[in-house]
Amino acid sequence: MESGNVTLWQAVWYGHQPCTGWRRGAGGAAYQLANVFLLLGYMGGGGGGFAGLLCSRALLCCGFLCAGAWSWTDLCAADAFTWSFALSAICAGQVVHVAYRLRGVSFGEDFHALYGALFQPLGVPLTVYKKVADGCSPASLGKDHCYAVEGKTAIEKLSLLLVGRIRVTVNGEFLHYIYPYQFLDSPEWDSLRPSEEGTFQVTLTAETDCRYVAWRRKKLYLLFAKHRRIARLFSVLIGKDIADKLYSLNDKAYFSNGFRFDIRLPSFYNLVASGSEVSETNIALAQSSSRKHPHTN
């Protein structure tokens, strides 16, 4: 076996005509350009997702074309030209296939801005974002109109603000604002199970003309069941949104002597329960943020 391996190795190493002299000078512009394209293509020069795949395959296609041209004009080797041409054709076919899959991924201006603000930083491909965008419906809200009324409006959807500003109040007391690319009802969404129903515990009023997109609860849960990646994505976005709303209330919690109190500390909830040291307005504020899921909007 060992002698057979040695014989094979010797046949590979010595079974060809040795190079009596090395060619001087560069291999030509086509050869150099081919290697540059191949390097960029194999490094994934286009990034991730379908757009990155499209760019990578296009670079490889150009690299193999240049290699084929060099094989035909300089190397004069039919087998090298054939392989380069075949590989170039395969990459060109992949470019056409990826471009065909991306042909229907087009959005309006608001959806493009939403993708750039929330989904693109998380590395969400356009094809996945298209599934998210197809499941929502755009809507508008005039100035001084209410999106939800405390104790009356049912929790039936999940909405995200695109343009404008929403004022959030509870019992007539101001809590905070909702700005573009924040959810309008993330705490309400997170407080209910798919089979449960409930009503808003806060009032949401438009301070300016607003535009938003909304997902119906049942349709969104069906989308989550089909695509686990989208479910994890919304879990991250909603969790971050709730945390941002909760922290925005931190500046509004204070003792009767004027000192601010950090509502993230567990002792704050004990103070709320005992009713000591906290003004009545801030007790209501703290109670709304210390339930099972903080209703901060």
Automatic annotation (TrEMBL):
The keyword Lipid biosynthesis does not apply. GO terms for cellular component: sarcolemma. InterPro entries: cNMP-bd_dom_sf, POPDC1-3, POPDC1-3_dom. It is a multi-pass membrane protein. Residues 28-252 form the POPDC1-3 domain. The keyword Signal does not apply. GO terms for biological process: heart development; regulation of membrane potential; skeletal muscle tissue development; striated muscle cell differentiation. GO terms for molecular function: cAMP binding. Belongs to the popeye family. This is Popeye domain cAMP effector 3. It comes from Callorhinchus milii.
